[in-house]
Write a structure and sequence with these properties.
Mean pLDDT: 87
CATH topology of the largest domain: D-Maltodextrin-Binding Protein, domain 2
Structural class: alpha/beta
Radius of gyration: 28 Å
Order of helices and strands: HHHHEEHEHEHEEEHEHEHEEH
Number of strands: 11
Distance between the termini: 50 Å
Shape: elongated
């Protein structure tokens, strides 16, 4: 039934409904559309016949909408906002795009190219507002899987089947010790000297979780030291490493952005221990708004890979 209505409905009639509401009368709507009052009335009648519902209470000044009329108005306004913004897709008209893009973002994404992209996007689309909420990767994936109207940027190992994704970049993790750890002042360090050291671990290092590549590396390279502290927070991991509780894995770009960079020492191996992918996600069965589609298109094309 819905598909039949979508195929048969004259979408131009919805525009007439919008104008009637905005002008408050048939006569004013006719003046604005530059057609006769009779033509406006006939268009309204056709729309009501197609929807099999009365949309306007005609004996009021200004005209009032029925409950279903108000609902149709909301749908029509949303649809025509998207249609008129298509003009902004053309070259220099990108500044015409207006609205909000809701982003669910994992905390502590440190990538210079990501920052450069945000600068670029702001300049190209100055009237698009970004609404960012910081959540854990698990919460982001759960929210998106429930068709929350948003785009997600996060880590992931187990990806729900209903989510589309594009790889943004790989975040490389290295081993570090802190200023108060005995290894910090050692002149020569080999990988073998790390094998029995205590570790700071993230809760998400369990096999199958987002940071499990770190655990896979430790197990495959015989790093058998005990875990002296767990945390689910990157800042706390840095604090624990700095204060000498153990060595731990940290994303390199994050360390470069902290005030403790000089108090942390990168340990062997030089090439790092794991690459953890960061994706952009959206639900495959939730229609994207024009602004959401444009954000995804732009960030993928910009290429923020490290």
């Amino acid at each position: 039934m819905q598909k039949k209505l979508a195929d048969s409905l004259n979408w131009a009639l919805l525009h007439v409904l919008i104008i009637i509401y905005e002008e408050g009368s048939i006569s004013a709507a006719a003046d604005r559309l530059n057609i006769t009052q009779s033509a406006v009335s006939q268009n309204l009648k056709k729309l009501e016949e197609q929807l099999e519902s009365q949309l306007v209470i005609r004996n009021t000044k200004p005209l009032e909408l029925t409950p279903i009329g108000r609902y149709c108005l909301q749908v029509a306004q949303m649809m025509f906002t998207e249609i008129t913004s298509i003009e902004a897709m053309r070259g220099s008209n990108s500044h015409l795009l207006e609205g909000v893009v809701k982003l669910l973002v994992v905390s502590r994404i440190h990538n210079p190219k990501y920052n450069q992209f945000l600068v670029y996007f702001k300049k190209k689309y100055p009237n698009i507002t970004l609404d960012l909420t910081v959540k854990s990767s698990m919460d982001i994936l759960n929210n998106l899987n429930q068709k929350t109207p948003a785009i997600g940027i996060c880590l992931a190992r187990r990806i729900p089947e209903n989510l589309n994704k594009e790889l943004l970049f790989n975040q490389r993790y290295y081993l570090y010790c802190g200023y108060h750890h005995p290894l910090f002042l050692e002149k020569e360090l080999s990988f073998d000297s790390l094998l029995k050291e205590d570790f700071i671990a993230f809760n998400s290092e369990d096999i199958g979780d987002v940071l499990s590549p770190i655990t896979v590396f430790k197990e495959s390279h015989d790093l058998t030291g005990r875990v002296s502290a767990y945390t689910n927070n990157l800042d706390e991991a840095v604090r624990l490493i700095y204060t000498g509780y153990g060595i731990g894995a940290l994303p390199d770009q994050f360390i470069a952005a902290t005030h403790l960079e000089s108090k942390l020492r990168r340990l062997p191996p030089k090439k790092g221990i794991a690459d953890v992918p960061v994706y952009i996600f959206w639900h495959e069965h939730r229609p994207l708004s024009l602004l959401e589609a444009k954000f995804i298109e732009e960030i993928v094309a910009f290429d923020i890979s490290l």
